[in-house]
Amino acid sequence: MKPVGSGWSLRRRVITLLTVVGVLLIGLATAEAAMAARNRTQIDAILNETGPLRVQSQELLNAVLDQETAVRGYAVSGDPADLSPYEAGLDQEKATIKAMRALLNDYPQIGQELRVVEETAEQWREAVAEPVIATTEQDGTRAGQALVTEQARQRFDEVRSAVDDLQQEILAAREQSAANVRNSSNLLVLLLIIAALVVVVAGAVLLLSLDRMVIRPLTGLATQVREVAEGDYQHRIATVGPPEFIRLGDNVDAMRQKIASDLAEVREARERIEWVNSQLQKQAEELTRSNRDLEQFAYVASHDLQEPLRKVASFCQLLQRRYAGQLDERADQYIAFAVDGAQRMQRLINDLLAFSRIGRLTTGFVDVDLNKVMGDVAGQTEAARQYADAELTWTELPVIRGEEPLLTNLLANLVSNSIKFRRPDAPPKVHISARLVGAEWEISCQDNGIGIEPEFADKIFVIFQRLHSKDAYPGTGIGLAIVKKIVEYHGGRVWVDTDVPEGTAIRFTLPARPEDVEAAAATDPAEQPQPATAGDTTPADEASSALPEHSAGADQPDGADGPPESGRTGDMRETVG
Description:
This protein has helices at residues 10-77, 84-101, 108-139, 141-147, 150-229, 243-323, 329-357, 370-380, 382-388, 404-420, 479-489, 514-522, 540-543, and strands at 366-369, 391-395, 399-402, 429-437, 440-447, 494-497, 505-511, 549-551. By secondary structure, the protein is of the alpha+beta class. The strands form 2 sheets. A 6-stranded mixed beta sheet has the order 6-7-5-4-2-8. Strands 1-3 form a two-stranded antiparallel ribbon. The longest helix is centred in the middle third of the chain and has 81 residues, at 243-323. The radius of gyration is 62 Å and the shape is elongated.
């Protein structure tokens, strides 16, 4: 293999070949242009000079013949009218000679012959024509005819002979011009043939050069690359040819070495990954068994805890009812603490059971009418709404795919949460609305309660996360965690809209049915609601204000002063805000 940079590069070779061919073609083109101009000049000489001269020489002969005929006729008839052809022939002779002289710049020999014709004709007129005319006018036709002798005819033959010599000279000049045209045309054709041969030879040389310097090295390189591509990464790539191809081969070989090195690293990494995967698989299996055992343990433990808790709660309540007022005040307080702790433990266990069952115990997705669900929610929260004088309203809600018990639980938690975290100076108002955003329904629960600070907007969905003490707002702190898990189980997302004028707005999304999306797409785009994000400040009830509104307001008298739920947590209506 030649060292890199040795010899001429492919670019230099191609440029040199093209330069030589270009110089040859330019020289041939220049010669062809000069020859073509010369050929055009020679053709112009035939068409515009020798051709007209030949015609004019014949006209000159005719003019001289007219003069001789007119002189003979006048000598016979003596009629002056017979001299008209003589005068006309004389004028024609002068005009023809003048026209011929204008074309004789390049033909001095023809000009000399023309002068001989002119001089011979003038001598004939002086020696024969004018004496005959003058004698006939003065002495009559007989005297005139006496002058038309054999000598006079010889003088005119000299004129005719001079004109013949002139015509022969013109014909010779024309033949010479035609020969020049043929020679220049043949030379032009020869130059074109040479140019074609130069192009053919250059093409052949270029083709052979490309085959030797490009195609063969590239074919060899491609063969070696193919061997590497088939798996022989240790095959060293060697390239011959121009320096560019040698550098290309070196670069490809460097790439091969890099690929071989990377492949070795990949193989090592794959072996490590396979080992890690096997370990992860073992850990996953172990984790699955552990989760299954933990679920079983949690289920059994929670059920096993129910019985002693119920017993503790029952006997504590019996102690409270039977011995209330019989013991001292501190004893009554201790018994109340025990009863409250047992009841809260029962609520906590029930909520944990409900949280663990979401997504694990499933009945399958069906079409669920959220309007019917809101009717059930209104019934479940009726006692709480009467106690707090709360008003629950909702606009027309969609039909979605989901599990009806979970969706009922979801909306009941949100409504109960809004009623619980109310302002003391205003009756609670809770409004549920929905709007279609793209391929999802965005459902909002808006209230006029105490609201949530923006820095706590993400914390309220964490299990057991509380923002208030249990004395201020009772509950286990798991309600909104259940809401988040139910929403995510249905393929949606939930967030708190902190940019509302008052109260709290919790929004969540649920996938819309395909037929609802198609129906919305078929309507006027101007009537479609704009997509909203988690920070959208437009109340959802504004987007659906045209929909009919349902109400479940508290129009009955207030209930007892005690808590409305009386310790019931099976419906999971206690949350934290």
